[in-house]
Structure to design on (124 residues):
């Protein structure tokens, strides 16, 4: 199926957020660009917390389309790898936490990535 460039533009306009093509990628919502991007870690898949880490849990983790999956019993590095999923398990292979490292748009006046967004949410 061949899609015309006009149909392609309309398809893109129906998406709420996408990366605006440019040298410096900016998160774009159709009207406003975020001039700054930050990184954060967001808790995900809470229904798996307290369950065993196995292939079923891994199947759910893959639904997040991670760039990598990092499973640990407590030692994590302080680097950031966008879209990586970190799974914290205890000594009995029970999931304690699952989080995903994400890229976020920073509205005007918000600095310091996820920390700044968290503070702004608390102030609302």
């Amino acid at each position: 199926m061949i899609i015309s460039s006009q149909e392609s533009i309309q398809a893109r306009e129906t998406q709420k957020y996408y990366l605006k093509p440019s040298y410096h990628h900016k998160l774009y919502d159709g009207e406003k660009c975020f001039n700054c991007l930050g990184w954060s870690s967001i808790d995900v898949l809470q229904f798996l917390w307290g369950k065993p880490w196995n292939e079923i849990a891994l199947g759910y983790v893959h639904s997040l389309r991670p760039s990598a999956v990092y499973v640990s019993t407590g030692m994590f590095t302080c680097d950031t790898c966008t879209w990586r999923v970190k799974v914290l398990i205890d000594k009995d292979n029970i999931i304690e936490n699952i989080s995903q490292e994400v890229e976020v748009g920073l509205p005007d006046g918000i600095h310091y990535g996820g920390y700044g967004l968290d503070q702004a949410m608390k102030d609302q």
User: Anything to note?
Assistant: The helical segments are 5-14, 55-62, 113-123. The chain has two domains: 1-33, 34-123.
